[in-house]
């Protein structure tokens, strides 16, 4: 006999935790199911521990910049305080009791089990079945893509999980995939003395961003001692007990003590019962409308929607789902035209909205402007580690910025002004008249506008 509840939330990562907690606080009876840790990827194997690692690696880099500017510095990098901080401060040694208690205090019935949809409004969680009168929220996130390369499956390769959990560092590391995960972790490990080789199948790293961003990231990481192999694919992987060898399709090989696979993420919804509610279980992601509805009585939020694999997107969509489920009069609708993203390399590479190519492909009459951070007063003052640029992509017909990149020291913070401009479609002539404080990094936005 199915138990009656208002809502079942499947998956309690960032998106599901937010949706379940808010719905319970609003007075609904909510069951939240997750076989793993409440909070999901971001606090335990993603954003938070990786940014702690980046903070430590950036301290090393800043210390190395002292020479010639503030004296002489020496530094002996040591991974142990980083591994300790990740255990003690970030993840409670991968224990989610605090998060579980917080969720239960909000009124959510938490079950540490995998959930499966068994029909419209019906969900099986472990050995219990629920009938959800108000709806089901699917927030099951993604899992790492493991490419079908000969030999790889049988080897002890790392994904982000093992990389974040590392207590000691290898002497050398091969990173397969030059996207956000690969590059952030590459720079961390390189700054701690690991010999890193990045193997990227496309002809440039960070390929979803502007070509200028790819060039900047590559130059910065090469400065950290990283070797890049772009435009090549691994055809075979072998592990001899002490290290990995990748055979590449140009006939060469790459060797390293460890191998990190960072070749993207995929949804894992095949066994979720989605077909029973009219959703294609084999699709690359769960398609959602502007209320993040996926089917009658089903909402989907976060990475599983394929809109943008970012914590801020999971939170954004969770809010939309919550207000729609509650029938709020002024429930917002989703708009992704100003999706911000920051790759937390040093220099940070922030971007919002469309790249120049995406804008041209969309048929927009594009004008671009670019300014270099070292040429801006603050960049010149900053000197060591000042590399970066601001690039604007303007829709000529509408006279608004539809995309922007802010790369450099605090590039992710400088992005905020550009995100407002794209989000609110602030006219370019208005941005041109603004006063930009002197001598800030964000004042370079004014120079980029002048260069249009
Ligand atoms: C190394 C790394 C660094 C990152 N850094 C950033 C960053 O700096 N900024 C940023 O915005 N994003 C970052 N991300 C991405 C961010 O972690 C994700 O976008 C975010 O976690 C997505 O949240 P989610 O709720 O959609 O899914 P997840 O956090 O993946 O949670 C999904 C949950 O669903 C559960 N689940 C799956 N199937 C079932 C089922 N059948 N029943 C019950 N539960 C199920 C899983 O166990 C999991 O706990 C990073 C990711 C990684 C890997
Ligand atoms: N700072 C952040 O916000 C942050 C940080 C980390 C991750 N994330 C999120 O996590 C998602 C996943 O990150 P990711 O870096 O794994 O994926 P990604 O899609 O960003 O990059 C994967 C890279 O691997 C390459 N690749 C794929 N198959 C390959 C193969 N067989 N050989 C060589 N290269 C191959 C791709 O061309 C691509 O460049 C990102 O899209 C991002 O949304 C965000």
From TrEMBL:
Cofactor(s) required for function per UniProt: FAD
Statement: the UniProt record of this protein carries the keyword Flavoprotein: yes
A Pfam family assignment: Pyr_redox_2
Origin superkingdom: Bacteria
Transmembrane annotation, as ranges: none
Domain Pyridine nucleotide-disulphide oxidoreductase dimerisation: 339-447
Span of domain FAD/NAD(P)-binding: 6-318
InterPro entries per the UniProt record, alphabetical: FAD/NAD-bd_sf, FAD/NAD-binding_dom, FAD/NAD-linked_Rdtase_dimer_sf, Pyr_nuc-diS_OxRdtase, Pyr_nucl-diS_OxRdtase_dimer
Keywords from the named record: FAD, Flavoprotein
Family: Belongs to the class-I pyridine nucleotide-disulfide oxidoreductase family.
Listed name of the protein: NAD(P)/FAD-dependent oxidoreductase
Species, as recorded: Kribbella sancticallisti
């Amino acid at each position: 006999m199915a138990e009656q509840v208002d809502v079942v939330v499947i998956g309690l990562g960032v998106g599901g935790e937010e949706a379940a907690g808010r719905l319970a606080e609003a007075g609904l009876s909510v069951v939240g199911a997750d076989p793993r840790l409440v909070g999901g990827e971001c606090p335990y194997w993603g954003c938070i521990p990786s940014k702690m690692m980046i903070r430590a690696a950036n301290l090393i880099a800043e210390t190395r910049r002292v020479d010639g500017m503030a004296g002489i510095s020496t530094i002996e990098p040591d991974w142990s305080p980083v591994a300790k901080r990740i255990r003690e401060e970030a993840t409670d040694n991968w224990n989610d009791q605090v998060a579980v208690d917080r969720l239960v205090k909000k009124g959510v019935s938490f079950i540490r089990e995998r959930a499966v949809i068994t029909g419209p409004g019906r969900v099986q969680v472990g050995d219990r079945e629920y009938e959800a009168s108000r709806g089901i929220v699917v927030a099951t996130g993604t899992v790492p893509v493991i490419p079908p390369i000969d030999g790889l499956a049988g080897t002890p390769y790392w994904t982000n999980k093992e990389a974040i959990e590392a207590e000691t560092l290898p002497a050398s590391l091969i990173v397969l995939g030059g996207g956000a995960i690969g590059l952030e972790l590459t720079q961390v490990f390189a700054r701690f003395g690991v010999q890193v080789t990045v193997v990227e199948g496309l002809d440039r790293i960070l390929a979803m961003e502007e070509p200028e961003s790819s060039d900047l990231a590559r130059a910065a990481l090469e400065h950290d001692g990283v070797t890049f192999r772009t435009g090549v694919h691994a055809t075979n992987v072998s592990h001899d007990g002490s290290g990995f060898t990748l055979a590449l399709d140009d006939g060469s090989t790459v060797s390293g003590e460890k191998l990190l696979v960072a070749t993207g993420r995929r949804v894992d919804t095949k066994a979720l019962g989605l077909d029973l509610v009219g959703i294609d279980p084999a699709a690359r992601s769960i398609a959602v409308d502007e209320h993040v509805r996926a089917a009658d009585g089903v909402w989907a939020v976060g990475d599983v929607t394929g809109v943008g694999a970012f914590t801020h997107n999971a939170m954004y969509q969770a809010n939309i789902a919550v207000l729609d489920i509650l029938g709020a009069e002024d429930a917002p609708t989703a708009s992704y035209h100003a999706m911000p993203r920051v790759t937390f390399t040093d220099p940070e590479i922030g971007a919002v909205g469309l790249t120049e190519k995406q804008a041209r492909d969309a048929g927009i009459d594009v004008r671009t402007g670019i300014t270099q951070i070292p040429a801006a007063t603050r960049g010149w003052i900053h000197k060591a580690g000042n590399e970066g640029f601001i690039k604007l992509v303007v829709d000529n017909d509408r006279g608004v910025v539809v995309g922007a990149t802010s790369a450099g020291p605090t590039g992710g913070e400088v992005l905020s002004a550009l995100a407002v401009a794209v989000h609110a479609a602030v006219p370019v002539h208005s941005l041109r008249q603004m006063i930009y404080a002197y001598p800030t990094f964000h004042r370079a936005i004014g120079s980029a506008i002048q260069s249009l």
